[in-house]
Amino acid sequence: MRSPIAGIVAAAFLCFAGTPASQAAVDKGPAGLAFYTPPETLPKGTHGTPIWVRGLTGKAKLTSAKSNRLLLYLGQQTSGHDTAISGTVHVPKGKAPRGGWPIVTWAHGTIGIADACAPSRVGMPAQYDHKLLNTWLKAGYAVVRTDYEGLGTPTTHPYLIGVSEGRAVLDMVRGARKLDRSLGKRVVIAGHSQGGHAALWAGALAGRWTPELDVRGTLALAPASHLGEQAALLGALTAPGPLTGLAAMIVRGVDVDRPALNAASLLSDRARVLFPQVDEVCLSDLTEGDSFGGLAPSELLRPDGNLAPVIGALNENDPETLKIRSGPVQIEQGTTDTTVLPLFTNQLVPKLKAGGANVTYKTYTGVDHAGAVLNSRAAADATKFVRSRLSR
């Protein structure tokens, strides 16, 4: 007669055998957009705990990956409350080296605040970052990418709020490693634009937030900075353009993170009518003439409003005050960038150095904002930095 214990052991073996050795047992997530809506009760566990996973399809896939997966994981808001965050996990082809695949955690640039804009849903515009990310996969580095808090998932994205971004970038690594045992501890943090801002914050938070990770360095391409100073200059910019849409999203980010400041009350009458669009459409639509692109930056805010509290909140999220101890930092900046102005990055670098960071600063003549990712020399320097940090 078969022993009941033997039956239990056999069942346990079959459950284990049904999961690839490299992959932990994580629930399969629902199809379609239902994937982004977490269960009513979030799982118990530390930040970075996987909630569920499924295969990734669509424009966000990376062609050089052996596997592309969409992951929903546990994050933590700046208020301390748990939340669900989405992101993607891309594993290189071939056999993992001893110690597991080194990891690049990539922080994406601004795409919008609306859930429909989440990069895991739609990819980035023209997939402009794919060539660089595929290069890293071919070099033998896993790539993980967070959507950030509230971008795709039910809460609202706290745009350019440093702690929120940094935690999401780091917890993406923790979640990916719990999902896939072939991923190692060696990590480089990298990002562009908003993602450069996020990467610097993640580099500063890493030692305390995810101490088990061996963070080897931080790569920030055209990182956003000096937001408070730029907000103070809005009144002097009288030509309509895309900057107004970005500024509206920054107001929304402060409104989400610091609701007591009531930042939206500073909007002009025209801007207040348009403001709901920030939560409904992506950046490309916000910059159109029938949206914020039809307003000059000087027309965004009421002339009699007290900007000081909002500027103070923005300054608290400026990366220039950070102390980054988790390996060296490389910052890359195009000289003809009209989105992240070289003037501000030039000021950021010495501030980070004064805070103790080991910063290498590279500039590229004639390179614009997207060129910080697309330019062949900038991309080669970025890849050289990643290789130098992860090969040791």
TrEMBL record:
<dbReference type="InterPro" id="IPR005152">
    <property type="entry name" value="Lipase_secreted"/>
</dbReference>
<keyword id="KW-0732">Signal</keyword>
<protein>
    <submittedName>
        <fullName>Alpha/beta fold hydrolase</fullName>
    </submittedName>
</protein>
<keyword id="KW-0378">Hydrolase</keyword>
<dbReference type="GO" id="GO:0016787">
    <property type="term" value="F:hydrolase activity"/>
</dbReference>
<dbReference type="InterPro" id="IPR029058">
    <property type="entry name" value="AB_hydrolase_fold"/>
</dbReference>
<feature type="signal peptide">
    <location>
        <begin position="1"/>
        <end position="24"/>
    </location>
</feature>
<dbReference type="Pfam" id="PF03583">
    <property type="entry name" value="LIP"/>
</dbReference>
